[in-house]
Amino acid sequence: xxxxxxxxxxxxxxxxxxxxxxxxxxxxxxxxxxxxxxxxxxxxxxxxxxxxxxxxxxxxxxxxxxxxxxxxxxxxxxxxxxxxxxxxxxxxxxxxxxxxxxxxxxxxxxxxxxxxxxxxxxxxxxxxxxxxxxxxxxxxxxxxxxxxxxxxxxxxxxxxxxxxxxxxxxxxxxxxxxxxxxxxxxxxxxxxxxxxxxxxxxxxxxxxxxxxxxxxxxxxxxxxxxxxxxxxxxxxxxxxxxxxxxxxxxxxxxxxxxxxxxxxxxxxxxxxxxxxxxxxxxxxxxxxxxxxxxxx
Length: 296
Description:
With 296 residues, the protein is α/β, with parallel strands linked by helices.
């Protein structure tokens, strides 16, 4: 079996443990606004020394979205700044700060939660998906979230504490792929499974789709699981609107076809089109700083 690889993205929150704990202390006493201005001054250094991320972000705005060079450069700064805000917001939640969440199509989502069927949530590195898990409950359904196992200990510790209050269990990605069995068992119990659907974890099983005008690889696993288990697949995005407000976008996706393979491909295509529409609406909240469209 191919070893899991994370060489294209770090997937780990920066900073030493004592810095992260001090950040939580600061936010608990002074609030998140106090650090937004500091973040604005720090971003140019990230752009200067993080050349790989800068080039990927610039290419995304210039080549994929068609921005002029000047607009693309300004958008790279804004992209980094919004990401900094997103990270600070997560630590603010660890510190006990409150945020407002506005959900679109909430009645339909609530009806889905009340059913006995399992649900596959297709998450993305767009906006701040993690924030919803800190504040929203999924009713009585058990909830398992697939997470990157190499995160910073302070972040994992606070994630675990916040998620547990909302009946959410973290399932780290395992080298032996044992996490797949855990997620399948959760769906068999009628629970919810959340899986990142826009990044590869080294698996050879991918689906290639046209995304923002050029083909890119997406993981087949989330779409395969939803089709094979015959459960609803839902794409959810949590987008930052202002300092203390997030908008939750909910899309129930269809899978058409006469066999499992064609249904997986159909579901993947619907997810990619939905992802593209959200990114065009919030272009600065796309947080994948590597060559996403790299050829195999």
